[in-house]
Design goal:
The protein has 177 residues and is mostly beta strands. It has two domains: 52 residues, no CATH class; 77 residues, Roll (SH3 type barrels), CATH 2.30.30. It is built from two helices and eight strands; from the N terminus they run αββαββββββ. The protein has a five-stranded antiparallel sheet, with no helix packed on it. Strand 6 and strand 7 form a beta hairpin. It is flat, with a radius of gyration of 25 Å.
C-alpha cells in the first residue's frame, strides 16, 4: 500500500521539476602552423581540448580571447550561445586605451580595444586589448583598469619605458691594440 504512494510522489516530484544545465563557452584565437592562417572560433572546448581534437600542438595553437557561461546544453550540435553584449560600455571597439592596473607588467601600456563583453559572474564589462607594438600581445581587462588615451604608437608610454628607465645613449669605446 505504501509503495504505490511513494512511486506516485516520486513521479510527481520529478515530473514537474525542470533541470537546466550550464557550460562555459570560449572565444578563442586559433593559429594553424602548417597553413599559416589565423582565425577566431566560438566553442565549448577549452583551448587544450580544442588543440587536441583539431590536429594537436604541432598543427595548431590557441588562446582564450573571451569566456562566458551559457545555460542549456550543446547536444545535437546546437550552437553556442552568443557572447554577451557589454552593459553601458565606457569604451568601444577601436578605442585606444592606457592600462592603469597598478603593479602589473602592462601598466602604462597603450593598446586598442578589440573585444567588449559583459561577464556576469564578476558583474563587470571585460575588454580585450591588443598591443600592436608588443608583438600583437592580447590581454583582457576590467573597465576600471583602463582609461581612454590619444597616445601614439611607439611612445614611451606604450613601450613601457619612462624617461627615467630609458638606457643612456651608448658611448663609443676606444679600440685597444
Amino acid at each position: 500500500m505504501k509503495k504505490p504512494i511513494l512511486i506516485i510522489l516520486l513521479t510527481l516530484t520529478f515530473g514537474f521539476t525542470s533541470v537546466y544545465g550550464e557550460y562555459r563557452a570560449y572565444l578563442i584565437e586559433v593559429y594553424d602552423h602548417i597553413l599559416q592562417k589565423k582565425w577566431e572560433e566560438k566553442t565549448g572546448f577549452s583551448t587544450d581540448k580544442y588543440i587536441v581534437t583539431h590536429g594537436g600542438g604541432n598543427r595548431v595553437s590557441a588562446f582564450v580571447k573571451a569566456t562566458w557561461m551559457c545555460y542549456g546544453d550543446t547536444s545535437n550540435y546546437l550552437n553556442i550561445c552568443p557572447l554577451p553584449d557589454p552593459i553601458q560600455p565606457k569604451f568601444q571597439k577601436g578605442d585606444r586605451v592606457k592600462i592603469t592596473l597598478e603593479k602589473h607588467i602592462t601598466e602604462g601600456w597603450i593598446g586598442v580595444i578589440e573585444l567588449a563583453y559583459y561577464q556576469a559572474d564578476v558583474k563587470s564589462n571585460v575588454y580585450g586589448v591588443r598591443f600592436g607594438e608588443k608583438k600583437q600581445l592580447y590581454n583582457r581587462y576590467f573597465e576600471f583598469n583602463l582609461e581612454k588615451t590619444t597616445g601614439s604608437a611607439g611612445s614611451p608610454v606604450e613601450t613601457g619605458q619612462t624617461e627615467q628607465t630609458q638606457p643612456p645613449p651608448a658611448t663609443p669605446v676606444p679600440a685597444t691594440q
